[in-house]
Amino acid sequence: MTKLLAILPIAFALAAVACGPGKTVASPIDVADPAFAHGKELYTANCNKCHGYADPHLLADDKWPEMVEEMGTKAKLEAADRQAVLQYILAAKKQ
Ligand code: HEC
After folding, report:
1. In 19, 27, 59, 89, which residue has its Cα 20 to 30 A from 4's Cα atom?
2. 12 lies in a domain?
3. How many domains does the chain fold into?
4. Ligand 1 pocket check for 91: Cβ under 6 Å
């Protein structure tokens, strides 16, 4: 029994690493420019289904396109919507 209790925190730690972004934000960052409003809407509705909202500062600008392709596909977003989410994340990262 004591052995099991000792293993539990390690199991939880591994699960947290395996299942989602390392750094998250409580709510999506506001971007004043209305050009990014649709991307923010899509991000808000789709990107916290499996893990918390990934902090836009988590990745470099040149790493986000591939990540949004992969995650947008998981979220079943169309190509145009993945583009909108990507543009929103890059704009939010500059805030
Ligand atoms: C169907 C579930 C699911 C949805 C929806 C989803 N993700 Fe993920 N996400 C995951 C899983 C699982 C991982 C970890 C493993 C991997 O990369 O597949 C992950 C990892 C990530 C990471 C990597 C974090 C790191 O620490 O390297 C980022 C960033 C991310 N997601 C962003 C997003 C964004 C942005 C969206 C919305 C377009 C999204 N996710 C939607 C399941 C999902």
Report:
1. 19
2. no
3. 1
4. no
Check if the beta carbon of residue 85 is closer than 8 Å to that of residue 47. Answer: yes
Q: Which domain holds residue 49?
A: 23-93
Whole-structure pTM value: 0.86
For the Cβ of 63 lying below 6 angstroms from any atom of ligand 1, the answer is no
Q: For each of the chain's 95 residues, which pLDDT tens digit applies? A: 666 556 545 554 445 446 788 899 999 999 999 999 999 999 999 999 999 999 999 999 999 999 999 999 999 999 999 999 999 999 999 98
**CB–CB of 43/57 below 8 Å?**
no
What φ, ψ does residue 53 adopt, rounded to 5°?
A: -65, 120
